[in-house]
Write a structure and sequence with these properties.
Chain lengths: 230, 230
DNA sequence: CGAATAGTGTCTTTAAGACACTATTCG
DNA sequence: CGAATAGTGTCTTAAAGACACTATTCG
């Protein structure tokens, strides 16, 4: 049976990523300054088109684009959601599949022509910047998802180096949630989750030496049955 | 600046919906029997291509396709996730954006040529059926999402008529979760959520008359801070 | 020693689970 | 009345919050 692929015009389809980290006590999102139209000169999310010959899935596209445009390989990556419409891109009806990612604080750089600059941008200064398309809204959605997940999972560990102290984890969680949590509650979760193991050595921290922890080999992110209270 | 839309071949992009209801004490999913290739004769999820001239967003596409193919207008609709790959559709690399929907138990019918038949199919019999593409996997993901949300929200009400009793709601939740819950816990949630209002009349139910409830005008789905236990 | 941070002990609070009890309807 | 289902009262339990207490390090 004949199938006419041109029966409908396909929408413009792209993959973008919202990559967060916590740095200097603030939640930062990775943005690139666009060197090409549309939105030349604006800040935008790193992303681009699927390479249908080589990308197995859109997950691969998201990772590939992050690496190409910013040299970052995320520690955590999941689909956020698709954003679509005819008014979000001047080129016509478009769909962007957005990924939500986390990484250890690190330096970033760009090596390709379509990107002028790459920066970690504090989510608090976003309102005052010139942001491409609907990327501002998208980042807000991603931030909400991160906050929600931080209430019932250990997802914030992916913003830390592979070894970290409870004090660092507490501080990252508090930055994400924008409110304090109980150290004791965090310790109880660390024990209950069985996701972590303590290292041999301890580390200086201004007072008593702190135990270092790392995520156990192959441990999955566990979800708790209750949220931290809001 | 020139932008070359053909720099990359766009993937094939479709929108599909997993529409559930609870009927005769079982979770059912709405499937259509495909009258056209690919997968002619198989059961598949209702969906299709975006009409980029007329659909404002992919949400509209999902609703439109459901209505065209099955005559159903869902009470609840949200994005599930996109599924992508070069091996899921014989026509090449494809992306399907999948929606997850709920509706009151109702009759369904088809009025278009590309659909031979429309049926509510018990999720328990899916393994033994011939299902198009990766739709079996997709339905499993959607079912997990439904089960997860039923643990911390009142989402199962959208499988009931606009007026319902606590007994009916309890039974729908138990069907979705595949385990019993405490009636008392459910009543506490109904009161705490402030999503519902009692109707004037009560209704027969084999014993004492039962209070009818309905979702308050404009009430949003509330999320509880704890799950029902597993 | 005192300041600072790490880590423990334990009481309170919240919301779910368990389950017995009362209430209402119908045959 | 008895069976069936609706709805309440209340004790127990699980896990978070609050917060005081001890432990260790450094200057």
């Amino acid at each position: 049976m004949h199938y006419d692929i041109n029966e409908y015009k396909n929408p413009l389809f792209t993959v973008d990523s919202v990559l967060f980290t916590v740095k200097e006590g603030a939640l930062k999102v990775l943005m690139v300054r666009r060197a090409k139209a549309p939105c030349e000169g604006c800040w935008g999310l790193p992303g681009g088109f699927v390479d249908i010959e080589n990308d197995m899935t859109t997950d691969v596209t998201a990772r590939r684009k992050l690496k190409e445009k910013t040299s970052v390989e995320p520690r955590y990556l999941e689909q956020l959601q698709a954003f679509s419409g005819s008014d979000r891109d001047p080129r016509g009806f478009s769909v962007t599949l957005v990924y939500f990612a986390l990484v250890t604080e690190q330096d970033v750089s760009s090596h390709i022509a379509s990107v002028e600059d790459v920066q970690w941008i504090d989510v608090k200064v976003l309102p005052s910047l010139d942001i491409a398309f609907d990327h501002k809204t998208i980042i807000e959605h991603a931030q909400k998802r991160l906050q929600q997940k931080a209430l019932y999972s250990m997802i914030p560990v992916y913003c830390l180096p592979s070894q970290f102290t409870i004090g660092q984890l507490k501080s990252v969680i508090e930055t994400i949630l924008e409110k304090p949590i109980q150290r004791k509650s965090l310790i109880r979760r660390i024990e209950a989750s069985d996701m972590f193991e303590g290292a041999e050595q301890k580390v200086k921290s201004g007072g008593r030496l702190a135990q270092l922890y790392s995520v156990k080999e192959g441990a999955d992110l566990v979800n708790f049955e209750r949220n931290f209270s809001v």
